[in-house]
Amino acid sequence: MDVESRVRKEGKMHNKGVSALEEVNAYVFRAGELLKLSKDFIKAFSTSERELIISIPLRRESGGIDVLTGYRIQHSSARGPRKGGIRYHQSVDLDEVRALASLMTWKTALVDVPFGGGKGGVTVDPTTLSVREKEEVTRRWTRTMVNILGPHRDVPAPDMGTDAQTMAWIMDEYQRINGFSPAVVTGKPLGLFGAPGREEATGRGVIGVALGALMKLNKKPSEIRVAIQGFGNVGVYAALAAQEAGMKVVGLADVSGGKTNDKGFNIKEIIGKYKKVSEIPDGKDLSGDEVLTMDCDLLIPAALGGVINDSNHEKIQAKIIVEGANQPLTLSADAALQKRGVVVVPDILANAGGVMGSYFEWTQNIQEFRWPIERFRDELDTRMKIAFDSTWEASLKYGCDLRTAAFVVSVERVATAFKLRGDLL
Ligand code: NAD
User: Fold this and answer.
1) Substitution site in 2, 89, 159, 312 for ligand 1 pocket (most atoms within 8 Å of beta carbon)
2) Do 54 and 174 fall within a single domain?
3) Of 113, 140, 165, 210, which alpha carbon lies 20 to 30 A from 354's?
């Protein structure tokens, strides 16, 4: 069974009855204990500030009306406007969006940008939507959410199944109601107030932290063979940055299938020529699942959540995993891999380049001033390094793994803001 069907069959039960939100809360709880925080804080942050669930009637071009479910979950505004992507996927459900919204709170705090956490989505297979249908779904989602969105309330961005065009529709629909306000959404096209550098930011950040980990482990990029699951926004730019850093990308997979090539793929050439991994002519075929367990040094899951779980963690051969996707490891797979000495760079650090890039775009929109791409890249690289170093230092200080350390840094920052506001604690 392929990874997507299995995740769907498991009904979002990431790990034997533990929901995705419970997994995130378990990490928050662990960090809270290390920081000796009151249990009230953990209680307050185990739930969301606000949750909106909507119906989206969609007139299908093929005839008939489908009624889709849409979500926006606002987890926290303790450190600023809520920030987080919108996902269009058939597996989107309340538990997943809640978990991802909470992760955004910890991610924005870890990389120290002035945002809180939120997430949205629509339960729909985006490959079944025509362009017109996707626009209608997006405009309806925006209209229904309009009172809870805003540059200083909640700022969406792309996630799986949504892209720069989707963000342009959100900006336009919001503007019809509230007037010109490009900072209401990030990840917009360059021709419509997007920021040069934002599109590549998540993948670039993934490799930035991978290089940080390699340095700490005394390994050279040229010794590293990389496998990447997911060849969308995150996977493509991570592959490109890995090649530019001197690593060899030996495995690639997307929903169409996978390929492996011992000599390493020429990513620049592939990106220009092929739309799907299965179309790449060189290399041996493998499934979207097999890329996770193939022989490599660095594994980058950059597709769905829950893909490394009890069914396959024992077969993982990589010594370093950098989580491009959100929650690609279940709680028990994570524990088992850490026990085997595999270094796991957690999602809230590894893929935070996206929200960092969104922050730069938001800042430029508010200032009405465009940065050159060199400034964007420099700021991104510098701030990702600071976030990596603080996580590494916390792991040494508390004698814990990198995921726990990342939560320690972020939970401490959110708790401080919460206390200073005079909330509860
Ligand atoms: P995307 O839609 O651009 O790409 C997703 C990729 O995953 C596609 O190549 C798709 O074919 C592949 N995929 C889907 N099912 C698969 C399967 N069963 N086996 C193998 N490949 C499969 O999405 P994205 O924006 O690249 O996001 C990927 C992950 O990264 C998600 O978990 C998302 O939450 C996370 N993320 C994205 C960003 C961002 O800026 N785009 C930021 C932070 C985190």
Assistant:
1) 159
2) yes
3) 140
Residue among 107, 119, 134, 259 flagged as catalytic: 119
Say how many Å lie between the CA of residue 78 and the centre of ligand 1. Answer: 28
Is 286's C-beta closer than 6 angstroms to any atom of ligand 1?
no
* Domain limit, last residue, from 345, 367, 392: 345
Instruction: For residue 144, give its domain range.
Output: 48-180
- Binding site membership of 236 for ligand 1 (Cβ less than 6 Å): no
Rounded Cα gap, residues 422 and 42, in angstroms: 16
- For residues 74 and 150, state if they share a domain: yes
SS3 294: coil
Query: Would residue 119 show up in a list of annotated catalytic residues for this protein?
Result: yes
Q: Which of 83, 84, 103 is nearest to 95 (CA)?
A: 103
Domain count for the chain: 2
| pTM of the model as a whole | 0.92
Expressed in angstroms and rounded, the spacing between residue 181 Cα and the centre of ligand 1 is 28
Which stretches of 179-289 are DSSP H helices?
Answer: 198-216, 233-244, 267-273
Q: Is the Cβ atom of 233 under 6 angstroms away from ligand 1?
A: yes
Q: Are residues 163 and 293 both part of a single domain? A: no
205 and 338 inside one domain: yes
Q: How far does residue 421's CA lie from ligand 1's centre (Å)?
A: 36
**Beta carbon of 288 within 6 Å of any ligand 1 atom:** yes
Task: Summarize pLDDT for 326-376 with one digit per residue, the tens.
Answer: 999 998 999 999 999 999 999 999 999 999 999 999 999 999 999 999 999
Question: Does one domain contain both 106 and 219?
Answer: no
Binding site membership of 149 for ligand 1 (Cβ less than 6 Å): no
Order of strands, edge to edge, in the sheet holding 117-123? 50-59, 65-76, 117-123, 82-89, 154-158
Residue nearest atom 40 in ligand 1 by C-alpha distance: 354
Distance CA 111, CA 33 (A): 22
CB of 208 within 8 A of CB of 385?
yes
Q: What is the pLDDT of residue 5?
A: 37
Phi and psi dihedrals of 13, rounded to 5? -80, 95
Question: Do 247 and 128 belong together in one domain?
Answer: no
Nearest CA to ligand 1 atom 37: 159
